[in-house]
Amino acid sequence: MKKQFYTIGSVVILLLAAFIFVLLPAMVGNGRSYTKLSFGSYNGKDVSYAPDTDFTRAASQYEQLAKWQAEYQGLEYQPNYFDIFESAFESTVTKMAYTDAVEKSGWKPSEQAVDRIVVTQRDFIDEATGAFSQRLYSQASDEKKRTIRKEIESSLIASRYYEDVFGGESTLKDTPLYGLKASADEISFLRSIGSKERTFDMVAFDMSQYPAEQAAAYGAEHKDLFASYNLSVITTADKANAEKALERVTKESLAFGDAVAEYSSKNYSGDDGKLRNKYFYQLKTIITDEADLKKVTDLTEGQTSGVIAVSAGYAVFHADGNAVQPDFADETIIKTVTDYIKSNEYGRIEDYYTKLAQDFSAEAALSGFDAACEVQSLQKTEVPAFPLNYSNVSIANAVPSIKELAGAGMNENFLTKAFSLTQDQLSEPIVLGNYVLVLKMTGESDHTDSDDIVQKTYPGRLRQYDQQASQRKLLTGPKVKNNVYQAVIQFLTGGSN
């Protein structure tokens, strides 16, 4: 059976549900402790890393969980204090909000309720018997007992809000005593999500492998875009400076490279002044006026332009050599054209592979899916059964982890087309990420254990989903001031407030 483990972030809700703020030693960062370090506030109340605060106890708890996680995975513990303190801040603020709400109602835990938890505290447990020891309790100082009882009372107040709103583990004939309830119709609907699963045969056309001959054909149709210009450039934000540089180059015989060093802000070049964006399609983004663009591209070796308005201000161009027409047998040019198509004409790539997919479908309709794969040298993938489950909600099976199907669970177009197919029907081409897919629906079956899964796990998941949504709303609200990032920097560098 596969063991389950949790990341620090994923256990925030688990700790919140029970408010397990145990009395652990405070962490020490970078070899020193702190009297006080503010990580933010809730409703004007400070959330500080200081002795005997909920935040410090929560941070210690999360650090311990991180250590256990590393040990479980056989890894050396490397603390991620940003995660630890962010999780501690979120749980502390949530506890503060819940406590405020309960205190306004006037509810307080009874002495007996506190007693029931006191007898479970490890400080008072006999190691030999594993049971509560009256002797250990009597030996503890009054201050220690008061502190423990105060913390238990505080946690019971906050957990009262959690149980009343979101529910808890207490049940009566399998019905939760507190919190929101799941209706029979809701559970019935959720059962239906995972009840029917389908299998598919699939072929995938990888659009990242656009053929060089296709790129060359595009380049030949648009060869002016890929002409290369051997230019140096002076760029300035101020037109007067560009005019001064031009005057000194043309009338005082100042070397263009020296003018670059003295005047240029080097927006489109390095220190040597050589223009980085040398292709015509790149020049078009720098010089938007067509007449000015022609003045620059008409320069021959040794010629210098006038002052030209560019996207970053003003520029003076100098031709270090003549323009070079593209050679579409050159691998570098082909890569340049391919990159251009991917950035500016991606629809051309989709159209190319969609046509291949359509040809495959036509062949498969005549000779069968496997035969069509053989004719076109394609690899067939048998997709395991999965249900119609948009966003891969955890209550039902997800789309299988196949690289060509990455993102399929969040793609409405894919799911609509896949689950609109009838038995043995071929899909039309489906664009998904970097692939164009063709599916054949090969079967549908009932997922027999979905009823039990929903019945047993849904109430707990409902509590978790509701609590997560509530917490997100709280943490982004106007009462919360989050200073965790800045405080962690201080914590790690030894600064303090």
List keywords for this structure.
47% helix, flat, single chain, 12 strands, alpha+beta, 18 helices, disordered N terminus, three-stranded antiparallel beta sheet, 497 residues
What spatial form do the alpha-carbon principal axes imply? flat
Low-confidence stretches: 1-32
Widest β-sheet, arrangement of strands: 9-5-11-10
Instruction: State the separation between the terminal residues, measured CA to CA.
Output: 49 Å
Radius of gyration (Å): 34 Å
Could you report the average pLDDT, rounded to the nearest whole number?
88
Alpha-beta classification:
alpha+beta
How much strand content do the residues show?
A: 5-15%
Q: In which range does the helix fraction lie?
A: 40-55%
How many distinct helices?
18
Oligomeric state as shown: single chain
H/E element sequence? HEEHHHHHEEHEHEHHHHEEHHHEHEEHEH
Give the total of beta strands: 12
